[in-house]
Every structure is written in structure tokens, then in C-alpha cells.
Amino acid sequence: MKRKEGSFFNMFTSLKRVIRLGWLNFKRQSGLTLATVSIMVMSIFLITSLFLLQGMTNFLVSNLKERVDISVYFKKDSSEKDILKVKTELSENPEVKNIEYISKEEALDRFTERHKEDPIVIESLAEVGRNPLLASLNIKAWQASQYEAISNFLEKGPHQGLIEKVDYYQNKEIIERIFKISSNISVSGIIFSFIFGLVAILVAFNTIRLAIYSSREEISIMRLVGASNWFIRGPFLIQGIIVGIAATFFTLLIFALVLFFFSPRIEVFLPGFNLFGYFREHLFTLLFIQLATGIGLGVISSFIAIRKYLKV
Amino acid sequence: MIKFQNITKIYNPTTVALDNVSFNIEKKEFVSITGRSGAGKTTLLKLLLAEEKPTRGRVFFDDQDVHKIEPEKLPQLRRRIGAIFQDYKLLPSKTVFENVAYVLEVIGASDLEISRDVPQVLEIVGLSDKPENFPQELSGGERQRVAIARALIIRPNVILADEPTGNLDPYHIREVINLLLKINEMGTTVLLATHNKEIINNLGKRVITLEKGRVIKDEEKGRFIF
Q1: How far, in Å, CA of B43 to CA of B38, rounded?
Q2: CATH number for A148
Q3: What pLDDT sits at residue B226?
Q4: In this complex, do A224 and B107 lie within 8 Å of one another by their Cβ atoms?
Q5: Residues of chain B whose C-beta is under 8 A from some C-beta in A?
Q6: How high is the ipTM of this complex?
């Protein structure tokens, strides 16, 4: 009996069969399937946690950085025009991220607002009879190391006559420490992600290898009755895909539930950060990462593990 | 059609399974290979399927050196040979029906052919009442008959049968041998390895007798001598 090999119809029939055989394997080897799916859930769980942790770290780090700034106070008799000139000059500096001008009046407003519950302060302010506060520029730089240069420019540059003081040196230590902590957090985040990611991948890979090891006899029989390598491999790859999808589904479900209930508690530690909201916002990215992890691990591990049994 | 040329097979390191064996099998022949267990019958069949490589010598199938075929092209060879293995080699996670259908799926038969041919062949080997059973639910004889059904269904050029009656009762032995004879009459070459005296003596066909890896007798209308 001669049959046309590789015709379109044949390829379609083979594909259909490979998918059906893969599905049957998934269904029938329920014990094995359960084991691989649960291991895969753990791997995807770990990788998803890393993703969320990354989000939390980024939030924490940028939050810390946001709080760092220096203020430069101008002498009482400096005109607004001069101050704005300094501001324009500073804003041309690429190291400066943001500058805010606070006039004497605004400084007073903020001061009274802040101390409105404190009658003694308000009374003594009234006693002074005039605005004792200075106009200032509030400067944020991109990086901590740049504050020193900015502060030098102000204190020793052409405008030093206008300037009463720069509060950099009072804050120097705190600024540097905050930046050190945040860069430590980022680096350890990357190292942890790498290690845990590797562990997750190795565990899943070994589980699948064991699963295929248990089918080695079957694979050699298939070779002996004339099945081509792709026809043998195909169902295992399909099985890997199904396992990956099932694991993704379960992991997503677990996360949705856990985050929904625990997000408020996390918000206590990280004010302004809603983990469940972050999860929902990045749902598609997450889904993509999870599916890529699940299916990728399933398919690649199966592919590698099956290779050595195809040599009959 | 099949040519064994000075075949020596040594399993590591000193067990000589076959020692300089040569013989030819013509198209449409019915050849029995006999000899005590360990005489090398199974090794011969494994060599023809390229499951094992010979230590020395060559095996030809239709003038093609079997051991020079690239691994990707081996399936083409194996699809022309219907092999019945001594240990059945059934797929444990597939039902009787699926085991037999699998080889048809492998060669790209249509769904129609599968749903038509499989029940027919199962009928022939007397298993039409157990298509949904898994191999571990069957007796040795039933498993053997599934293996036979699987070899027959692809209508191969050659049938290799390694002790196909080993686990069968006399009634089924006769059935299976008659089946092999019928297939042979229809033009299929049959290579039967057995040490069943009755079968050999009743067949009246060519018999090759092996002892300790050597051919000690090769005669038309042979008789059982061990």
C-alpha cells in the first residue's frame, strides 16, 4: 500500500492525531499529570511572586527617592526676578529632575497651614508682625551623587551673593543612605529573582524528565512499529502545553483569591500601594509571563527529555 | 528479498549470539527459524528491524543495507515489516483498539480505513469483544493476539513472528498458524521463529535450524530436530 507522504491532508490528519493522543495521555495518566501540574503551579507561582515583588520593590524604591531633595534659601532682600533667574539656570542642568519655587508668601501659607493647630506658634508669628520666612527653591536631582555638585554650584557659583544657605550638608547622610538602601533593594531583587527562577525551572524540568522516563518503553515501541520521531514527540509536547495551560489557570486563580483578601494588609506596610490593583493592572503581562513559563517549560523540557529515547 | 550476509553479533563482551550466519529469503517464502532458546532467533529478527546493529556482516532488505539507513528514514523500513514480538511490545496506556489503530495512524491511513479495518482484524484474532480493554487487563494469549492483529493490519511485505504462539492454547495456535499461511498465500513473506515441534513438522515449509549462533541446517520441507 503506497500512501502520499507529507501531503497537506496527511499533515492535517497527523496534527489532529497528535493533539488527540496528547490529550488522551494527559487524561489517562492522571496521577502523573497531577504531579506535573502541581510542580508547574509551584514554579509559575514563584515566578509570578517575583514579578509582583519587583513591582513592590520598584514602588518602594521610587517612593524613597521621591522624598529626597535639597532646598536652597535666598536672602531676605533677594528679588523674585533674581531667584527665577537662578531657577531657569538650574533647570538647564541635565542632572536636575525638578525644581519648585516657593515664594516667601507661599512659605508662610504652608507654615501656618502646618501649624494651625498650634496656637503658640501662630501667636508668636503674629507678634513678629511680618513674614520671617525666606523664599526658596526645592530641587530634586535624578541621582543622589548629583546633589553635591548642585549644592556646590549654588554656594560657590555666580549667585552666591543671593543665597542664605543650602540645606544639603544637614541632609547629606540621610540622602546617601536612602539611595544606598534603594540600590541594595534593587540588586538583591535581581539576584533573588535569578536564583528562584532557576530553581523553579530546574524543578519543573526534572519532573517532566521523570514523567517521560516512565514512558521510555512506550517510546521505543513506537519507534519499532515505524512511527516517525515527530509523531512520537508530538503528543508529549501537546501534553506539555496542556499541563502548562492548566498550571497557569490554577496559579492565576490562587493569586486572584490570595491578593484579593490580603492586599489591604499589605497596604498597611506600603501606604499607597494596592497589590491587588497592581495585579489587575498587569494581568495581561502576568498572564503572558505565566503562559510563557508554563508552556515553555513544558515543551522545552519534554523536547529535551524525549531525545535520548528516540535513538532505537 | 532479505539477505543475511556473514552476520556476527557479539553482546558485550564475550556472548556470541550469532556467528557468521548467512542465508537469503526470497519473496513470498514461508521460512521457520528454529533452535533452542538462546540460539539467536530473536537476535536475527532484531537485526532485520535495525533494533540492534551487527558486530560484523550486513543485512539487506530489498537490496538496501538495513544498518546504513539514517535514523530519520528507519520508520519507512519498519512500516514495511509487520513484527510480532515475543514480549508483545504493546503500548500499555492504550486500549486494544488504539494499539492496533496506532500503526495505521502512523502510516497516515484515513479515519475511515481505521474504523473499517481495526474491527475486522480484531475479529480475525478473536478479540472483537475487548476493544476497550487495556493490555494489563488481558491474558498472555490475548496480548499475543493483539500483537498479531497489529502486525497484520498494515498489510506488510514481510511478517516477522517471534514465538507468536508461545502463550496460546492449541486451538488458537492452529488459528494463528493458518492465518500466517493464508497471508503467505496472498503474497506476504513470513519469517517465523519458533521452537514448537508440532508447528514445524506440520508446516512442511523451509526450516532454518540454529545452534549456538550458527546455522546447522537449512532445508526445504524441513523437520524439527531438537
Answers
A1: 9
A2: 3.30.70.3040
A3: 66
A4: no
A5: 49, 51, 71-72, 74-79, 83, 85, 89-94, 102-103, 105-111, 150, 154-155
A6: 0.90
Are residues A222 and B102, on separate chains, in Cβ contact within 8 Å?
yes
What does the pLDDT read at residue A1?
43
- Domain-terminating residue out of A176, A207, A237: A176
- Are both A148 and A168 inside the same structural domain? yes
> Percent of chain B having pLDDT more than 90?
67
Nearest by CB to residue B107, choosing from A3, A29, A215, is A3
Contact residues, chain B, for A24 at CB < 8 Å: 93-94
| Cβ burial, residue A312 (10 Å; 0-12/13-18/19+) | middle
In a domain, A246, yes or no: yes
Q: Tell me, yes or no, whether A58 and A191 share the same domain.
A: yes
Q: Which residue has the higher pLDDT, B219 or A249?
A: A249
Ranges of residues in chain A with a pLDDT under 50 are: 1-2, 4
* Alpha carbon of B35: minimum distance to chain A alpha carbons (Å): 25
C-alpha cell at A223: 519507534
Do residue A121 and residue A207 come from a single domain?
no
Confirm whether A2 is domain-assigned. no
> Are A172 and A187 in a shared domain?
no
Q: What is the pTM of this model?
A: 0.76
Mean pLDDT across the stretch B154-170?
A: 90
For B35-83, what is each residue's pLDDT tens digit?
A: 888 888 999 999 999 999 999 999 999 999 999 999 889 999 999 999 9
Looking at the fold, whether A184 and A36 belong to one and the same domain comes out as yes
Q: Shortest Cα distance from A220 to chain B (angstroms)? A: 9
The pLDDT value given to residue A127: 83
Can you give the residue range of the structural domain that contains A36?
Answer: 15-64+180-311
A1 found inside a domain: no
Report the pLDDT averaged over residues B197-212.
90
Same domain, A147 and A214: no
Structure-block grid coordinates of residue A169: 550638608
Q: Are residues A296 and A157 in the same domain?
A: no
The alpha-carbon radius of gyration of chain A (Å, integer) is 32
B76: chain A residues, CB-CB within 8 Å: 226
Å from A298 to nearest chain B CA?
A: 20
What's the confidence (pLDDT) of residue A191?
87
Out of B83, B93, B106, name the one closest to residue A227 (CB). B106
Domain boundary, last residue among A120, A155, A176: A176
- Please tell me the predicted confidence (pLDDT) of residue A134: 86
Residue from A5, A21, A33, A224 whose CB has the most chain B CBs within 10 Å, to mutate = A224
Task: Tell me, yes or no, whether A4 lies in a domain.
Answer: no
